Amino acid sequence: MFDFIIYFCKDRNNRNRSLGSRHKEILIMKAQRVRRFPPQSDIRNPCKKLPISPFGVSDTGYRDILGEAAWARLNPEIRQRFSIRPVAGQCVRYAGVMDRVELSWMGWFFAQACRLIGTPLAPYRGKNVHMQIELIWDQKLNGVAWNRIYHFRAGRAFTVRSTKSRGGCGELIEHIGCGFSMRLKLSENHGNLVFTSTAYLLSIAGRTMRIPALLTPGVTTVTHEQIEGDYFRFSLAVDHPLLGRTIFQDGEFYSDVSER
After folding, report:
1. Per-residue confidence (pLDDT) for residue 58, from 0 to 100
2. Is residue 224 within 8 Å of residue 232, measured between CB atoms?
3. Lowest-pLDDT range, 7-16, 58-67, 76-85, 236-245?
4. Residues of the domain holding 83
5. For the chain, how far is it from start to end, CA to CA, in angstroms?
6. What is the pTM of this model?
7. DSSP collapsed to 3 states, 198-223
8. Which tens digit of pLDDT belongs to each residue from 19-41?
């Protein structure tokens, strides 16, 4: 149980000798919360039988959508992370701890309702939730499938699935399931990569309709913030135009190439 904790602490200390003492204390405290993830046989995991690879094939999709000027301002590690996509038949994996998984009463309602169309939102609240993020190439949608596996307490594991692909006008589309999707805008903020939803869409019989904002969970903002090396912070906030913040998640992750 504790071998991963020791490795995590040593690795972080070696990588962060230039950091202040307060930051080191935070990293050690966070490491003490991390334990091994449950066996993958205990959860539904499409990546389970695929070989794990820290590499992929070169892909300029995010760079093309963001634009050269904004792309150049991104942190170099973020540019590298978003310059590749998984090789077909392989998996790129990240692991970490989601410090907070928060839902307002309306956020909880939206999360439960969305289970009828797929699994786009985590339906539970939690703190210090162990998590894996696994990327697989989706040939059907010609994009990257993101499988976010939450290990909530009491043995409750839940996988959130969506696929990101380029739209017809050079935009980024996140496919949720059953014809539902989000149109995303990419931007750079202080060297970090930000995804912001600009519309929720429903496609039926070849026609795509925009869903009124009041009937959606709200504007989704995802921020990918570099910490150092393989470590980054992921945050997700959803804000409804009338009900305010409905969903918030925030945690730290790292590249995970171990075989489980």
Report:
1. 86
2. yes
3. 7-16
4. 37-255
5. 14
6. 0.79
7. EEEEEEECCEEEECCHHHCCCEEEEE
8. 455 455 445 444 544 444 444 43
Give the pair of three-digit tokens for residue 237: 């906030």
What's the structural domain count of the chain? 1
DSSP for residue 43: S
Please report which residue ranges of 47-202 form alpha helices under DSSP H: 61-66, 68-73, 76-81, 105-113
What is the DSSP code (8-state) at residue 42?
G
Q: Does the residue 118 lie in any domain?
A: yes
Contacts of 250 (CB under 8 A, 6+ apart): 98, 99, 100, 233, 234, 235, 236
Count of beta carbons in the 10 Å neighbourhood of residue 119: 19
Cα Rg, the chain, nearest whole Å: 18
Encode pLDDT of 124-170 as tens digits: 999 999 999 999 999 999 999 999 999 998 778 999 999 999 987 77
